[in-house]
Specification:
The structure holds two protein chains of two kinds. By secondary structure, chain A is α+β, with helices and mostly antiparallel strands. Chain A has helices at about 30-40, 40-50, 135-140, 145-160; strands spanning about 20-30, 50, 60-65, 75-85, 90-95, 105-115, 120-125. Chain A folds into two domains: about 20-130, Alpha-D-Glucose-1,6-Bisphosphate, Chain A, domain 4; about 130-160, no CATH class. Chain A is built from four helices and seven strands. Chain A is globular and about 45 Å long. A three-stranded antiparallel beta sheet of chain B has the order 1-3-2. Classes of the chains: A alpha+beta, B mainly alpha.
Chain lengths: ~160, ~120
């Protein structure tokens, strides 16, 4: 990682963040069994993610219908296949734009870890194409760890101004 | 979800950020607002050069200035950087928003109605 305290002595191009994956985690003051339900019961998933016909069985194919996102060319419908189910612990599904089935699917993996009286939920969305023009541009302009730093500081800034 | 940036806005942002010195200045401003004199000292640059970079950053909307006595104070504007971050990593923002939605759903759910699954089902 870049030394955050010496912000402007950045390495040249040798420390890009992984452009092929997004990792986010969050603590919820609820037990893993409850978080698991919210991740796997379609009527609950619909409330925070997208409308879905999800069934937690490996190999099950399902779709999720959400809003179209112009900025990313996302059609609004995700086609998925369940890759792994370990109740209360792990759920992995593929994630492909239903309108663009030729794309290499990305994968979304949820991992639940008990923490105190609650749950820490880890999300990894992996398999993005490193040769994607946006990813390339992002690396070229925002190289050297600058991007991740800016995103973090920006998050702090936004939190402070909300 | 992120709103789409106009190409011209993006061009301006990228043009401003393509220069490493300007990224450094922006980085310094993310730590807190500063005057030209302070920035010039930080970077061991002449004040006119710093001003020139600040003008480019201001034009792109990344930075604002306000007068304070005989000085001008420069600060980062969150908006355009946020737009840029959305454009570069749309999914990151997407998931953070979804996770906060998930938190709201969890808060609304009954604790009682835990089916017979246990946390440590296996």
């Amino acid at each position: 990682m870049t030394d955050q305290t010496t912000g402007w002595e950045l390495p040249a191009e040798d420390e890009p963040t992984d452009p092929t994956a997004i990792r986010v985690d969050q603590y919820f003051p609820h037990p893993p069994a409850k978080v698991w339900r919210a991740l796997t019961e379609p009527d609950l998933v619909t409330q925070w993610l997208m409308t879905t016909d999800f069934v937690p069985e490996v190999g099950h194919r399902f779709t999720m219908a959400g809003r179209r996102v112009e900025a990313t060319g996302f059609s609004g419908t995700v086609a998925s296949t369940v890759l792994a189910v370990e109740p209360g612990r792990t759920l992995a599904v593929t994630w492909t734009d239903a309108a663009d089935p030729d794309l290499v699917p990305t994968t979304v993996t949820w991992t639940l870890e008990p923490e105190g009286h609650g749950t820490r939920l880890f999300l990894e969305h992996a398999g993005f194409d490193p040769d994607d023009p946006t990813a390339q541009l992002s690396r070229r302009i925002m190289g050297g760890g600058w991007r991740s730093m800016i995103l973090r500081r920006l998050g702090e800034l936004l939190d402070a101004t909300d | 979800m992120p709103r789409r940036l106009k190409d011209s806005e993006l061009d301006r942002l990228f043009a401003a950020l393509a220069n490493p010195t300007r990224r450094d200045i922006l980085d310094a401003l993310l730590d807190g607002e500063r005057t030209v004199t302070e920035l010039a000292a930080d970077f061991d640059m002449s004040r006119p050069s710093v001003s020139e970079h600040l003008a480019a950053l201001r034009e792109s909307g990344l930075v604002t200035e306000r007068p304070a006595g005989r000085h001008r104070i420069y600060a980062v504007t969150a908006g355009p950087l946020g737009d840029l971050a959305d454009w570069l990593t749309p999914y990151e923002r997407f998931w953070r928003e979804r996770l906060s939605g998930l938190g709201a759903v969890l808060d609304r759910m009954d604790d009682d109605h835990a089916p017979d699954t246990k946390d440590d089902a296996r």
